[in-house]
Fold this sequence. Notes:
The complex is a heterodimer of chains A (about 450) and B (about 400). Chain A has about 450 residues and is an alpha/beta fold. Chain A contains 19 helices and 11 strands.
Amino acid sequence: MAFRTTWRGAAALTCGVGLSLVLAACGGGDEDGGDDGDGAAAGDVDCSAYEQYGDLEGTQVTIYASIIAPEDAAHIASYEPFEECTGATIVYEGSAEFEAQIVVRVQSGNPPDIAYFPQPGLLQTVVRDTGAVLEAPEQVVENTETYWSEEWKGYGSVDGTFYAAPLGANVKSFVWYSPADFEAAGYEVPQTWDELIELSDQIVADGGKPWCAGIGSGDATGWPATDWMEDVMLREHGPDVYDQWYTHEIPFNDPQVAEVLDRVGSILKNDDYVNGGLGDVTSIASTTFQDGGLPILQDQCWMHRQASFYQAQWPEGTDISEDGGEIFAFYLPPISEEFGRPVLGGAEFVAAFTDRPEVQAFQAFLASPEWANSKAEVSPPGWVSANNELDASLLVSPIDQLSAEILADPETVFRFDASDLMPGEVGAGSFWTEMTNWIANDKPNQEVLDAIEASWP
Amino acid sequence: MSGEGFTLSDNDPVKPDARSGSTTTTAARPGDAPVAAPRPKEGSPVWTGVLVALGAVTVIGILVVVASLAGLWTPEFDWPSWLVSSITAVEKFGLMFFAIILFVVVMSLILLAVDRARGVRNWMVALAFLAPMGLMLVFGLIYPGLRTIRESFFDRTSTNYVGFENYTTLFTEDIFQIVLRNTAIWVFIVPIVSTLIGLVYAVLVDRTRFEALAKGLIFLPMAISMVGASIIWKFVYEYRPDQEGVEQIGLANQLLVWAGREPYQFLITSPLNTFFLIVVMIWIQSGFAMTVLSAAIKAIPDDIVEAARIDGVSGVGMFRYVTVPSIRPALVVVVTTIAIGTLKIFDIVRTMTGGNFNTSVVANEFYTQSFRQFNVGLGAALAVVLFVLVIPIVVYNVRQLRLSEDVR
Lengths: 457, 408
């Protein structure tokens, strides 16, 4: 009898738990409805730009992306005007395992409505392997063509079909330095590659280590070294050869690529130049990219080549400004006049797996200047978009403003991070590991290039 | 006191090895059940129906799996969205509770049906108890296993049959040879060294005053997750140059610097870095070996030890001629269990080097190929290789376990 009673009690408990869950779900729904009806909340947003999306009351769009806390907060906040004006609910889910999980989710028949792809290479893989990515709707095509320069549409396309519009962007051709220390030592920001090398030699002569670097990044170790290769490739041989390189029109062990690796090696594998405050050449491989530039603050290193997003790594309270600031960045100078001022960068891309009206509307919104500016308003330092209607004055950090300026400048020759465009076997595989071997085990240049060439599918 | 019977089971040196032991106990239980369960009372045909229905569902489930595996039929139905794509925490918890409730409902239905049904035969009861577990095994173990073997003969997206190409790649390309070499080094060193350390330690601390404390200390790493241990050791190996204004933050390098040596790149300098990773695994596994072996040593009957002592055996002789032969079955189980764990080693390599610097092992490479490169075929081939390598050790382990049970 006692058993029976306990059993009944347990049953009641389970039912109770189940019921409260159901109630919680209902409660959530009500809350959202209430928000929309609340005129005051929507009052401070100008909804006129959102009328084109129509009334999306009661609909839901799910997003899956690699952007996780704390950076996801600004993303979630930037959707608020859209949610308030259209009534749709945006459910954001970020995952550190995005790259692996997105394929698993698609193949198991459980894709999100929208995914943010951090690399076009991964987008290509998912498009080709699963065929589940939908072609971009008309409004997205229109927005991309209007608000982005031409090459961007190409980066969001696979085999001639346009799938994904760009979202945020970053500029990689930066060298971080300390304006205050440069001033004190009497160094000038170099304008050409030759000046850059002269400056490095000068620092060595003055008893310092000019460069510091770190390429450690878990199972993605090596990517900062590939960025070095790409930046130098753009400067040494120009955008055309660059395009031939990542499309494999020239082999990876081509003499032109070898020249680039030699030049990168003249800095990264030069024991006189590296690795300020971190050790010898091999310490580049054991240092995480997050730590790579920090010795500048301890005056143990002078220059660190890393993307605009590196500003998030400086400790809180660091004065990041151009005139006499603790830290700022200069543009990695060109090698040859012939190719102008090439810029290397990266971006995320928005691809959809469903074509419900609210999903398409949200996709169009993400490609619009309304979103770019909505995001700029709420973003902490470290975010920029290549949307040419982006109001740079909304950005908080001078580095972001500089990046936005560079991206919007019609003179800029922008090229996307090549390793992100190469097939996964190379761009997220052998290119990383071989560059790591090159630094950690002093693997000879030619062997490195031959090994990468051999892995090209 | 239950005298002899008690001593008999206590003598079993393998007993503390809960993991391998539990397999036999759980397997034995359903067999016992039919003897105890059927109490021919007034039953109702409804419950018999429920029992039959449950059996039918099980059979259909197995057929579905077999059919889809053979490619005869692909399940084409839309799962309700809340079941497959829960996003918010509430939905995820809801799904978890749903699963628990489903489990409870099914199990109580079975229990009730067995209890109430009329004219139940023993085999029906056995089936009712075994079927859910069997179904789960088929779904969760056999089906994925067979599918992995099938995929290893297909290309990177599992669409075209490529024969043994993936295996050829695996055994001929340089990077995979390094992977196989590293796995071999791991499997050779970890079980032997951990067991040796565990054995010597167990003998040394046996019946000393600090036994409990000493055992607790070496057992402690077992309580830390592999990833946690890896992070700790990553800090131990951390490298900083020996240079003005730079302080060492890694214990190992600080010791080197104090000894007047240059700091060393423990994790990068190949091939020694693999051995520094192995140290972490030994650090974790020695505690396990020590616990099992210590229990086995304590189970050596006192009369044997006394007899040996009277014969003038002591010290190393006692260890060599009495202790080790007496605990041989436990030793074998410990070595094989650690070997199985080492073959599957993944966490340490992934956390500490990410497989870089020539330290990758089969399980890590399997993950990289499957989920980074999306080369499903090659990843599956690596998994199959791992599977094939584990089989002989598992078979040997189970046989030794049986033997040791028969002997006692």
